[in-house]
């Protein structure tokens, strides 16, 4: 017999599917035919930031990739595979990189940078998490956060992280290829921060191809 928390999910799924079928009898059969979302969401694994819930979206609306601290590494085959498929096969028009306030991954990077500054001879323990976050830890070490409160410092790291990952996305092959072709479908890259305390999304960056209108 499933554990209580698992059974709760299964029961909720049954109730949800029945409710959808009642309101829209062909919804699932149409969904099974294929997908054509316009959005690729690259976000954090944090349970408080479920993309479909906070945007009131339906199944089929958003193509999704999530990981610790919403990273996009240029040598990460998982993220690159998602982006490549989303742009070249699914045909998304917007890629949104979404961070959030009170991010545990960002806080871990902030703490690691503080520890390194306090003991320059110490080395970070080699774990999957520290390897994953090492580029962001290095970026945090370059920030001047001396005049910031703890909350301000964490918010600064969250925002810096979003902009850093947006830069990486814009350097990736799927995006540079799409942007180099004036006949390709337009793809815009966005950097967002979701504020947990407000339940609202704020946009930090919006980037798109810049083609010379006078070129051949």
Provide structural commentary.
With 216 residues, the protein is of the alpha/beta class. It has helices at 4-23, 27-33, 51-54, 77-90, 104-118, 128-141, 150-171, 173-180, and strands at residues 39-44, 62-67, 94-100, 188-195, 200-207. It has a five-stranded mixed β-sheet with strand order 2-1-3-4-5. β4 and β5 form a beta hairpin. The longest helix is centred in the C-terminal third of the chain and has 22 residues, at 150-171. The radius of gyration is 20 Å and the shape is globular. The protein starts with a helix and ends in a 9-residue tail after the last strand.
Report a brief summary of the structure:
By secondary structure, the chain is of the alpha/beta class. It has helices spanning 4-23, 27-33, 51-54, 77-90, 104-118, 128-141, 150-171, 173-180; strands at residues 39-44, 62-67, 94-100, 188-195, 200-207.
Decide which structural class fits the backbone: alpha/beta
Uncertain parts = none
The total strand number stands at: 5
CA distance, first residue to last residue: 67 Å
Radius of gyration: 20 Å
Largest sheet features:
5 strands, mixed
Estimate the global geometry from the Cα principal axes.
Answer: globular
Let me know the average pLDDT.
94
Would you list the SSEs in sequence order as H and E? HHEHEHEHHHHEE
The strands making up the biggest β-sheet line up spatially as 2-1-3-4-5
Number of helices: 8
Fraction in beta strands: 15-25%
Percent helix: 40-55%
């Amino acid at each position: 017999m499933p554990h209580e928390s698992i059974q709760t999910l299964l029961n909720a799924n049954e109730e949800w599917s029945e409710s959808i079928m009642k309101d829209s009898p062909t919804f699932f059969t149409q969904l099974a035919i294929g997908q054509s979302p316009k959005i690729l969401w690259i976000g954090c694994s944090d349970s408080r930031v479920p993309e479909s819930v906070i945007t009131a979206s339906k199944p089929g609306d958003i193509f999704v990739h999530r990981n610790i601290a919403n990273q996009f590494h240029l040598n990460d085959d998982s993220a690159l595979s998602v982006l490549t498929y989303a742009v070249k096969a699914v045909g998304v028009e917007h890629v949104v990189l979404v961070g959030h306030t009170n991010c545990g991954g960002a806080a871990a990077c902030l703490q690691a940078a503080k520890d390194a500054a306090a003991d320059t001879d110490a080395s970070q323990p080699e774990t999957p998490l520290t390897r994953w976050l090492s580029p962001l830890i290095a970026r945090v070490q370059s920030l001047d956060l001396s005049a910031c409160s703890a909350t301000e410092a964490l918010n600064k790291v969250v925002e810096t992280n979003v902009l850093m990952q947006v830069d990486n996305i814009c350097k990736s092959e799927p995006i540079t290829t799409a942007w180099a072709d004036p006949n390709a479908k337009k793809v815009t890259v966005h950097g967002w921060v979701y504020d947990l305390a407000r339940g609202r999304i704020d946009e930090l960056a919006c980037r798109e191809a810049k083609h010379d209108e006078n070129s051949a």
